[in-house]
Amino acid sequence: MGWTFSVRYPDPSTTDSAVSIRAKDFRVRSKQAVVLGEWPTKVEPFYESKEDYRAQASDQITELSALQQLFFANNRYSLLLIFQAMDAAGKDGAIKHVMSGVNPQGCQVVSFKHPSAGELGHDFLWRTTQHLPDCGRIGIFNRSYYEEVLIARVHPEILDGQNLPPELIHHKTIWKERYRSILDHEAHLDRNGTKVIKFFLHLSKKEQKNRFLERLTNPEKHWKFSAADMAERAHWKEYQAAFEDAFSNTSTKWAPWHIIPADRKYVARAMVADIIATAITGLHLKFPSVSRETM
Question: Which of 31, 36, 77, 199 has CA 20 to 30 A from 286's CA?
Fold first, then answer.
């Protein structure tokens, strides 16, 4: 199981050249220094037409549905999928596509916004820990504890509202300390059967502008527009630097980051689905058997 993307690029020496791209090519290796400018935000479609895309998407959904059923029945592992991105990168659409064929009883999606006063009374990992998936279930975090090394880094004044002892807020060390907490947390999850896969939907600044404009001009998308999103766009460079540092310090063999080209929504969704299917297949799960005595 798992898909291989067949993408075509122009080749000066030929009229048509096919290049095979595997989803794992977009995985950040452990201790790899990430420079987002070196990672593509767009790759050519792997489908020939809208009809071809719909057929392939249908096959993916069917495959994920079968794998999720096996995952649920096995009831030994849990799967945590983390989505991070700049605004308008398509997190909601990717999650909707991936989960469209999955039994609702076997999955849960949690979106993390601004923390409540009660959540601020705990350490930065506490509120997400409350929503970790049970055995046999797939949990999806739409944003996550990584916000605490992303938005909190771009807007360090956020730290002032987190009830931290003043002596612990050292801007030169706090991010490294939080990376260490995240690494320990994800290693603990892996040791206890929760597999973690992290996705960054890598959107270009130009495409983000186009999507913001569409939200303004298309009445059906007005509800998506947020002045706050526009304000955050002014901090594009700071966010890119924060993402680069986070990926460089927290992508591991047991909890890898994948930088997914997101300028083409359908390509991004298919790549995400492929990575999830490949991860579940790699666990070599089997349906539980029933002994003769039980029968």
Answer: 199
Residue 200: φ, ψ to 5°: -115, 115
List of residues 6+ apart from 91 with CB closer than 8 A: 83, 84, 85, 142, 143, 201
Residue type, 206: K
Question: 163: which residues sit within 8 A by CB, 6+ positions away?
Answer: 120, 121
pTM over 0.85: yes
DSSP state string for 10-43 = --TTSS-EEEEE-GGGGBPPTTPPP-GGGS-S--
pLDDT in tens, 125-158: 999 999 999 999 999 999 999 999 999 999 999 9
The most distant pair of C-alpha atoms in the chain lies apart, rounded to whole Å, by 68
The pair phi, psi for residue 217, each rounded to 5°, is -100, -20
Question: How far are the Cα atoms of 174, 187, 221 from residue 191, in angstroms, in the given order?
Answer: 26, 6, 43
Q: Which residues contact 29 (CB under 8 A, 6 or more apart)?
A: 251
Q: Cβ atoms within 10 A of the Cβ of 288, count?
A: 9
Tell me how far the alpha carbon of residue 125 is from its chain's centroid: 18
**Per-residue pLDDT tens for 38-52?**
999 999 887 778 788
Confidence band of 237 (pLDDT split at 50, 70, 90)? very high
